[in-house]
């Protein structure tokens, strides 16, 4: 019994609610950590901001409680004077209408203010289809949202209790049951089928001429990028070959490995099909490129890939967003450990000519240290390095 009393205690529940609210505020008040090349910093909590919102919440609760008490006292004094008391049903009905209007304004505010904080237009070909799906789903759910909420709260007001009227008792109606089962079923089926075909198109595995293969390997807390050299083929990898200098475990028994390039920034030529070969070396990471609407898990031991075509260059996007410092980024989208928040790399979409110029400046994966480690003959290594400088990708 004591336990039941403990669980049902109103004081305890109030404390729990206050604790949850405080916790949410603490999380939301965390200032975004410094990005870029700087030292990883621990996220800061703005305690003044947190207590301000907690205080505002308690003041609003206090205000509501005071108004409730005043109305109760007013009601009692009316009754003492022999008059009819307050019409509480009308009070509740009006509160429902106020809630409806405030709620609709809140939805409008959220769309106009927070709507502008969403991503810029999709910078990839398939991203346009994904955005279309989001728009269709949002429009449909918004129509349902507004109709149901307006009906719910206006009915609560319109048909509040009245002594002059008796409610119609409706225990069951098959027609209504059918309508609200079949209509959502049809709409959801259309959305799912539409989504299925879009996903199938995005995950099309057929090879296209001109595909650029890029290896992206996640480890705590960095993305390693490897580009193929002039042969256009990425050398094979084997996790058993991973060493200090051969971070990705590239197999140098195959010739295709020799001209591979290790890069820091992911350069992509515009309007070319890119195939990202995704791998992880420790825990699950996730390749997340929001501007291209690309996201796929990087799972240790399970190589995956994602194909997409960038359509807007970084320079164009800088103009469109009116932000001269705009950069596309590839993030990690799995909470993979302490340094997760800083696991990102810059992605630059450039013209074909700029891409080739950049590619020719990249260093080979096969570094001098790695050659020493593999006991390569000096003559062979100098030959392969000179070839790397002319890397082409067509
Ligand atoms: Cu990660």
TrEMBL record:
Residues 111-206 form the Cytochrome oxidase subunit II transmembrane region profile domain. GO terms for biological process: ATP synthesis coupled electron transport. One of its GO terms (cellular component) is plasma membrane. Residues 1-29 form the signal peptide. Keywords: Copper, Electron transport, Membrane, Metal-binding, Respiratory chain, Signal, Translocase, Transmembrane, Transmembrane helix, Transport. It catalyses: 4 Fe(II)-[cytochrome c] + O2 + 8 H(+)(in) = 4 Fe(III)-[cytochrome c] + 2 H2O + 4 H(+)(out). Its main location: membrane. Residues 209-361 form the Cytochrome oxidase subunit II copper A binding domain. The keyword Secreted does not apply. Its EC number is 7.1.1.9. Subunits I and II form the functional core of the enzyme complex. Electrons originating in cytochrome c are transferred via heme a and Cu(A) to the binuclear center formed by heme a3 and Cu(B). Belongs to the cytochrome c oxidase subunit 2 family. This is Cytochrome c oxidase subunit 2. It comes from Mucilaginibacter pineti. The lineage of its organism: Bacteria, Pseudomonadati, Bacteroidota, Sphingobacteriia, Sphingobacteriales.
